[in-house]
Amino acid sequence: MEKLTETQNNGRLDFRPLFHLSIYLDRLIKGRLWLKVLIGLIVGACLGIILNPSSGLISESFSTSLASWLDLPGQIFMKLVQMIMIPLIFTSIISGIVSNSSENLKTLGVRLLIYFILTTAVAIIIGVAITTIFNPGNYVYTHGGFPQGNNHEIIPTSSTNLIENIPQAISNLIPSNPLETILSGEMLGVVIFTIIIGIAITQLNQDTARPIIRFSEAIQKICMIVVSWAMRLIPFAVFGLMAALLSRTGLEVFIGLGYYMLVVILGLFLLMVFYLIIVFFGAKMNPFKFLKAIKDPQLLAFSTASSAAVMPLSMKTADKKLNIAPHIRDFVIPIGATINMDGTALFQCATTVFMAQAYGIELTLINLVLITVTVVAASIGTPAIPGGGVIILASVLQSAGIPVDGLIIIIGIDRILGMFRTTVNVTGDLTASVLFNTIYKK
């Protein structure tokens, strides 16, 4: 049987590299999308302050009604990206598997998973440390705290239950109903299902596999066309979301949230420094040259807050500016865009500790350990879309026994933090690419 893992001279069927689809994103880079987003943030903030009922210019009912309309562009953008996220990631992971040999998959896959877990652990440690040191939740707590529902009882998660549930959690990684997994957006299950299907495709003969590969290429192209449409809404989405946030939030609470945002951004900066250390010592590359080479995907990540949407441009950058080998590029970046969410893990951990502080809940060492374990698992399954971090954050809060009511306020500022943490996530994917490219050259 002729396998797809044979050399090209023997007729191997390769995917056309996903980075060719970056032509749909080049116009956004040239049009300075990131600058339009910043302008939208500033103008939206000014409008939101004017629309806030505390300004005395408009009534509370009119402000609430107008805020719903201001949210609309952001909601449409999010729905469009959510709509194409799974098909794009599904076909991208398959392309990476098909373009690799079975031996590469065994060694590269295991090492990549270990690397991602280790960097996620570092991100979580940074998140816990900075939130504990700067204690941003104390300001919110002293000014009334976060809203809390009827259930005031805090029940810490038992470490015994966690250990007992590990075998079941491992078995649940393999989806028994792939369609249900896809419909529910459980990204970790989608990734595992896709990897199994991708490996199976490499065992098909060329005639059988050819239509599957061409169909997948068509799906990728369709997804990128939809992404390019959604991108046009981003400046308006950021403007509307910022205006709606400040029209609903009191000034004192917003000051406390601003302090929390600065703490998270500081943590993300420290994580970025950690990546540059890896680039310097692990990949033997000048960190400043690395940052210069990846500025385009970073700016697009900042603008879109979606790792999945930036993936084709990241692959183009890896190929043209970082000289990453095709089999490394086509495997590491699609997988990384799906499960390597270090910036999101830092955000989730810092936010959990921040909300505990805002509710006046003292977290014990065992609570922090449980949060760490939960965040590692949750960040791997976080959707690579705007707001994905907050969606998963609810499960992290529940595992720590912290009320989820305060998420209503966190959701309001998540779009801003999402821009920063997505930039870090994309940087992490490219860092992994240069590191593994160096390792496999030896």
Quick structural gist:
This protein has 442 residues and is mostly helical. The chain is 76% helix and 0% strand. The protein contains 20 helices and no strands.
Describe the structure.
- This protein has 20 helices and no strands.
- It has helices at 23-30, 33-51, 60-70, 72-98, 102-134, 137-142, 159-171, 178-184, 187-201, 206-231, 234-248, 251-281, 287-293, 295-304, 307-320, 326-339, 342-358, 365-380, 388-399, 407-441.
- The protein is mainly α.
- It has a single domain (8-441), classed as Proton glutamate symport protein, CATH 1.10.3860.
Tally the beta strands. Answer: 0
The proportion of residues in beta strands is: under 5%
Range of helix content: over 70%
Instruction: Specify the CATH class.
Output: Mainly Alpha
Name given to the CATH homologous superfamily: Sodium:dicarboxylate symporter
**Largest sheet descriptor:** none
Number of domains: 1
User: How many H/I helical runs?
Assistant: 20
Q: Could you name the ranges where pLDDT drops below 50 across 5 or more consecutive residues? A: 1-13, 149-163
SSE-based structural type: mainly alpha
Which short descriptors sum up this protein?
about 450 residues; mainly alpha; Proton glutamate symport protein; 20 helices; globular; disordered N terminus
Topology:
Layout: H1 23-30, H2 33-51, H3 60-70, H4 72-98, H5 102-134, H6 137-142, H7 159-171, H8 178-184, H9 187-201, H10 206-231, H11 234-248, H12 251-281, H13 287-293, H14 295-304, H15 307-320, H16 326-339, H17 342-358, H18 365-380, H19 388-399, H20 407-441
Helix pairs in contact: 2-11, 2-14, 3-11, 4-9, 4-10, 4-11, 4-16, 5-12, 5-16, 5-17, 5-18, 11-20, 12-17, 12-20, 14-15, 14-20, 15-16, 15-20, 16-20, 17-18, 17-19, 17-20, 18-19
